Each structure stands twice: as structure tokens, then as C-alpha cells.
Amino acid sequence: MKKILVTGGLGFIGSHTVVELQQAGYEVVIIDNLYNSKIEVLESIIAITGVKPSYSNIDLRNKIAVEDFFKNNTIEGVIHFAASKAVGESVKHPLLYYENNISTLVYLLKEMKKHKLSNFIFSSSCTVYGQADELPITENAPTKPAESPYGNTKQIGEEIIKESCKANGLKAIALRYFNPIGAHETALIGELPLGVPQNLIPFVTQTAAGIREELSVFGDDYPTKDGTAVRDYIHVVDLAKAHIAALERLLKNNNKKDFEVFNVGTGTGSSVLEVIQAFEKVSKTKLNYKIVGRRAGDITSAYADTTLAKVELGWETEKTLDEALLAAWQWQLKQ
Ligand code: UD1
């Protein structure tokens, strides 16, 4: 059994990826400092898969602890999720974001170099494209200056990895996620936002559940079909599976370059109002919402061209927006 390190393996995307890895026959070792996750997620992973992954509570900013981990574990690949991800918080605390997202990446890559490990999957984001000039967005679209320190850490992270591939014999794939939503079909794992959700879907489900009074729709004067902003919402289980496909590409040496980038989205753009309508339909609830002004830093439209991932990774989404919204709702009802 191949042993894979998953950093941030108790988080939203990390936990779903651990489940898929275990179901695909990999041995998983998780590092997570529980900053934005809960230890109970480990029990849920065991309940879903029947397998207990190894778990270490390590803060990746602790260089010595990271060194010790690599001394004591023989692994064949790393999937690196652990990072801070709140855009607004990153604007207030940029240094925290550079430390959490960049220092930790450097420590990991140094250890991989030291131990001659070469297979690395990185959580990147479609935020690197900013407002792309052409839609759907291909991997060749130029990256735009980041709108936030968070977005900048994804761009810098990709650069650091690319240069490590050139110099250190690393093989890596950066997956540029569009908007991950949903939860596992068992409703045992899902998204656990800290405090008031900043992202659309957790705000929608919390509003429908009566935790929030009203959803604010940020802007209806965008040049889109109904005036609200358009995004590519991808079911987290589909997204998790893209990591398995990317990992296998590296393990089988099927990669064409040492550093590769793939968009991970559905290829379909949905407006905020379309999401609300779809949610009301699948949840059979009426959502309380009002239109307010635009949110600073938001772009008009982003959805993926998924051709490259289809052709090269042999991966495409299987689930619909309705399925993702229903899963998010069932998860909310369980909380
Ligand atoms: C946001 C981040 C992005 C990050 C991603 C992680 C910003 C500007 N971008 O993407 O960098 O990678 O989360 O998941 O924060 N909306 C509402 N009302 C709400 C919340 C959201 O109308 O209460 C709208 C937004 O204006 C947007 C859409 O819903 O049009 C999606 O928003 P969100 O879920 O926050 O994702 P992004 O902004 O696309």
C-alpha cells in the first residue's frame, strides 16, 4: 500500500480526499493542526471508510516537528491542503497568511528534497486568473495581480513549486479549484465554516436553517444573464477525486512536465440567483434574501474550461449542481 501524506486532511476538501484515497486503497497519514477543523472528523472518516488513517497534530510552521515527521515516516506522495483561506482575514493579517501558506510550503518542500521525495499535489485556486479576459478559462489564461494576500499566496506557492521542480527533481501538479461546495453523501463530513460564513453556499444553508436571518446577494448589476455574479460550483467529492487522478499521474510517471497545472471545475457557470433557485428546489425551502451592493474584490464571472483535465487526467465531474446543493443541505441539517 502506498503511503500518502495529506496535510490539512481534516479540513473540508482534505477530509473528502482522505476518504477517496482510502477507498482507492492508499494508506493515508494526516497532518492537521485543527486550526480550522475538528478532531471529530477523524471518527467520521473511519465511519465512512472503515479505515483509521494515521494522524499527527503538527503545525507546519514548526520546522523541527516537520523534520521529525519526515524522519519517522516513509511516504510516496504529498497532497498539501493545509493553508489559511479567508480572503478578508488575509487582507487584515497578511503576514499570518505568508507564514501559514508560504513558510509551511517551503518547509515541506525542503523535507521532500532532503528525503528525495518527488510527488506533490498543491491546492491552488482559480483566483490566480482574476477576472479572465476569456471564458471559459483555460490553463493558458494569464494570471492577474492578486486581489488579496490569500490569492497572492496561491500564485507565489505555484512559483515556488515550479522552481523546486526545476532545481530539485520535484514532480508536482497544482490543481486550480473553482468553487468547491457540497458534502459527502453520508452527511458525515462537510464544510465547517468558522464563525459567519463568507462563502455563498454555507451562508445559504445556514440561512435556510434559521441560523442567519437573511442572505445578502452581492450585486445584481453585473453584465451577466441575470445581473448576479457567475461562478463554477463543483461538488467536493468530484474535486476530491481529481486529487486521486493527479496523484496517480505522478506515481505512474504519466506526467508530461515536472510541473503541471489543471483547472478543476465543472465547466458550467451559475449565477447567484440560479444557485438560490436550485437550492430552493432541492431543499423545498424558501430562502430569505435581499439584493445589496457588490462585495469589494469580487469578479463578474469565472468558469473553467475542463478539457485539459479530461484529456490528461481522465477525470471529469460526475455530480450536478442540484446534487451538490442537496448534499450541502443534508449536511447542514445534521449540524
Ligand atoms: C472566494 C474567494 C476566493 C477563494 C474562494 C474559496 C473572494 C473575493 N474570493 O471565492 O479567492 O478561493 O472563496 O472558497 O472572497 N455571495 C453572495 N452573498 C454571500 C456570499 C457570496 O452574494 O453572502 C456571492 C459572491 O459575491 C460571489 C458568489 O456568491 O459572486 C460566490 O462567493 P464565494 O462563495 O465567497 O466565492 P468566491 O468569491 O467566488
Describe the structure.
The protein is α/β, with parallel strands linked by helices and 335 residues long. The chain has a domain at 3-182 and 234-265 and 305-318: NAD(P)-binding Rossmann-like Domain (Rossmann fold), CATH 3.40.50.720. Helix content is 41%, strand content 16%. The protein is built from eleven helices and 13 strands. The protein has helices at 12-23, 40-49, 63-72, 87-92, 94-114, 149-168, 200-208, 236-251, 272-283, 307-313, 321-334; strands at residues 3-7, 27-31, 54-56, 77-80, 119-125, 171-177, 179-181, 215-218, 230-231, 233-235, 259-264, 270-271, 289-292. The strands form four sheets. A seven-stranded parallel sheet has the order 3-2-1-4-5-6-11, sandwiched between helices. Helix 6 (149-168) links the parallel strand 5 (119-125) and strand 6 (171-177). Helix 5 runs parallel beside helix 6. The two termini are 35 Å apart. The mean pLDDT is 97. The structure holds uridine-diphosphate-N-acetylglucosamine. Residues 85, 87, 125, 127, 151, 179, 198-200, 203, 215-218, 229, 231, 272, 295, 297-298 line the site of uridine-diphosphate-N-acetylglucosamine. The site of uridine-diphosphate-N-acetylglucosamine has 20 residues, from helix 7 and strand 8.
